[in-house]
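REQUEST ID: PR-0412
SUBMITTED BY: lab tech R.K.
PRIORITY: routine
TASK: structure prediction, single protein chain
INPUT:
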Amino acid sequence: MEIQKRLLIFITRTNWVLLFLASVLGVSFMKADFVRGIVFGGLIVTVNFHLLARTLKKALTPPYMAAYQTVLAKYYLRFIASGLIIFILISNHFVNLIGLFIGLSIVVASIFLAMAMEIKNLFLKEAM
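STATUS: complete
OUTPUT:
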């Protein structure tokens, strides 16, 4: 259980760090609509990740275990809300699509970084 908690903490912190770094780099080198895509995409996916983690934590805590239908309903509501927000951002040409794609990829990048760190730790433990 310790490894899961460590990974969750690492990923949630890395999400915000990557969002900040991508936003700063975008402001430094790109146009405003590109930066808006990075920021809005990153916020959408990071907030969704935090809400999903909170929902699962509440649902799987023994005293108040929720039914899987409740968890799925919350998941699909977040999914639909995210889809609507993305649709509005794209249809009104408020964001650049590539910037939005980069922003939406922040959690995936955090997960890959966490995986790389764990693989590195595993091989360093075996080497010693």
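NOTES: The helical segments are 2-29, 32-60, 68-91, 97-104, 106-127.
REVIEWED BY: pending
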